[in-house]
Design brief:
This protein is mostly helical and about 425 residues long. The protein has 14 helices and three strands. Helices cover about 55% and strands about 5% of the residues. Helix 6 runs antiparallel to helix 7, helix 8 runs parallel beside helix 12 and helix 9 packs parallel to helix 11.
Length: about 425
């Protein structure tokens, strides 16, 4: 997630900014008591490694500014575009290059280098965020301003550290250091006093959920295991028969969850009873639903497991509130996917309605009236009933995103770490 990666970037860089006497932290002598543990040549190699980590962080800043701005309309414009241009020029003249995968994943001997590694690793992971929900076209103007401000402040932090490291043997400063510093400061000042939306932190890449394989777990853990796997299998459209099995399984799970909570949590039991009623109506409404398109076998299997395990739960199995909340979250995800499957299957004519029609048949030389079954696209009133339940009762109410409670304070602390000087009280804490 964008928030996790940028938070780690700020925390690592803040810690690095608090370090003085950098050479002593990578093995240089400190007369008269401390002797050197590294040679000048080794410290030069360490400096080159730090420069590669630095390159990775500045690359993240450049990509962040690119993601926040529309290249055709100059959406960010002004100071943001100037900073992006200066970063592009500096990275183009950087001979250090990016860190290797080994340097990003291997623990380092010195704590100072380890901080740089964690920061560069967060930057490398953060590059995925810009193509997974934290890029142009998916951000509001206020979220884009927050991204631009973060990139400017992180650039300022790296340039401040760049000045601290000038005494490392063979140290090469960032190309066009002065111009880049001025651009970063101007961009940070430009965005600081504009409305920023820190719900940006909830966007970005997250690792995909995985199936919980292996033997079935006991008790409520087994129900959670089956519900989790069912939710993942419903990412694929199920055929109509499998969907009916899933719907009935959720009716059974809801029924037994309500019974478990009747005495200990009446409010929670009422929610499960309502869910049981919704799925009960779906069971009755979908009994004539047919359709062979889709792959619902795995989902139906996990639904049957969830229902069977819920039926055999001992009384009091849901006494743990955390387990109950997990079951509610998983079930809400299943509701959303069942709703999506119903809406897509009906509107795209992938599911059909079984109807009885009057026909003629020849039996023993006589023409007789018979009832035959035919399949047709789902029509009213069944169509309205199913779509109404799917849209109004299964679709979760969109949750209004809210920024993390410490999003502003974390950035204020970072700004203070950048601007603080020994013996200096620091800047005002206005964003």
């Amino acid at each position: 997630m964008y928030g996790d990666n940028t938070r780690q970037l700020r925390e690592c860089l803040s810690e690095l900014l608090s370090h003085r006497r950098v050479q002593h932290r990578i093995g240089a002598a400190r007369p008269p008591a401390i002797t050197a543990t590294t040679t000048p040549q080794e410290r030069q190699q360490i400096g080159a490694q730090i420069a590669r980590y630095r390159n990775g962080i500045l690359t993240w800043c450049h990509q962040g500014l690119t993601a926040a701005a529309d290249p055709h309309s100059g959406r960010a414009g002004g100071p943001a575009e100037e900073l992006r241009y200066r970063l592009h020029a500096s990275l183009g003249g950087d001979t250090a290059g990016p860190p290797s995968m080994s340097e990003l994943t291997t623990e380092q001997a010195f704590p100072l280098i380890e901080l740089w590694r964690h920061a560069a690793r967060a930057a490398a992971l953060g590059e995925h965020d810009f193509t997974a929900g934290a890029g142009y076209g998916r951000l509001s103007t206020a979220q884009s301003l927050a991204l631009v401000h973060d990139a400017a402040e992180i650039t300022r932090a790296v340039l401040t550290l760049d000045r601290h490291y000038t005494h490392i043997p063979g140290w090469q400063q960032v190309t066009h250091h002065r111009h880049l510093t001025l651009a970063a400061e101007a961009c940070a000042d430009y965005t600081r006093y504009r409305d920023q939306d820190y719900t940006l932190e909830q966007r970005g890449w997250t690792p995909p959920a995985q199936l919980i394989d292996g033997p079935g777990l006991d008790g409520v853990a087994g129900v959670l295991q089956a519900q989790h796997n069912l939710r993942l299998h419903l990412n694929t459209l199920p055929d109509a028969h499998s969907l009916r099995v899933v719907i009935d399984s959720q009716r059974i799970v809801s029924l037994h969850a309500a019974r478990q909570l009747t005495s200990s949590n009446p409010e929670g039991a009422a929610r499960w009873e309502h869910r049981c009623d919704v799925y009960g109506r779906l069971v009755r409404s979908t009994r004539d639903l047919a359709g062979t398109i889709g792959n619902g076998g795995p989902a139906a299997g996990q639904g049957a497991l969830a229902a069977g395990r819920a039926q055999h739960l001992p009384q009091g199995a849901l006494a743990d509130p955390e387990q109950t909340q997990r079951l509610e979250r998983l079930s809400a995800g299943i509701d959303h996917r069942v709703s999506t499957a119903l809406i897509h299957g009906i509107t795209e004519h992938l599911y059909h309605q079984r109807v009885n029609v009057l026909g003629l048949d020849q039996r023993d030389g006589a023409i007789v009236h018979v009832i035959k079954q035919r399949y047709q696209p789902v029509t009213e009133p069944l169509r309205g009933d199913l779509l109404g339940i799917a849209t109004n009762e299964l679709k979760p109410v969109p949750v209004q995103a809210s920024p993390p409670p410490d999003a502003v304070q974390n950035r204020l602390d970072f700004r203070l770490a950048i601007d603080q000087r020994p013996g200096h009280p620091g800047p005002s804490l206005a964003l």
